[in-house]
Structures are given as C-alpha cells and as structure tokens.
Specification:
Elements: H1 20-27, H2 29-50
Length: about 50
C-alpha cells in the first residue's frame, strides 16, 4: 500500500506568527461583534451610496 507523505511549503517556516494581542482579539466575542457591526455599516454605506 502506498502511503502519501504530506508536503509542506518551506515558506511556511518564515510566515509571521500572530502576537498575543492578536490571539486575544480573535477569541474575544465583544471585539468580534464590534468588528462585525463596523463591516456591516461600511457595506450598508456603500450600497446606499450606489443607489442615489
């Protein structure tokens, strides 16, 4: 039986790791909710401005 070995891109080794602050923000539901609202408000503004 032939077993496939996973192949990794060597560039992954030099990719930056998230900081502790970034990881906290990603897990914080309040922060995510505020970002969600902000993105939605931006989309609404674009949609409304496109329909004079």
């Amino acid at each position: 039986m032939h077993v496939l070995k996973p192949q990794f891109d060597p560039a992954i080794d030099i990719a930056p790791l998230p900081t502790a602050k970034t990881l906290r923000q990603r897990r914080n539901l309040a922060y995510q909710f505020v970002r969600f609202l902000g993105i939605n408000l931006k989309m609404i503004r674009v949609i409304v401005s496109g329909h004079h």
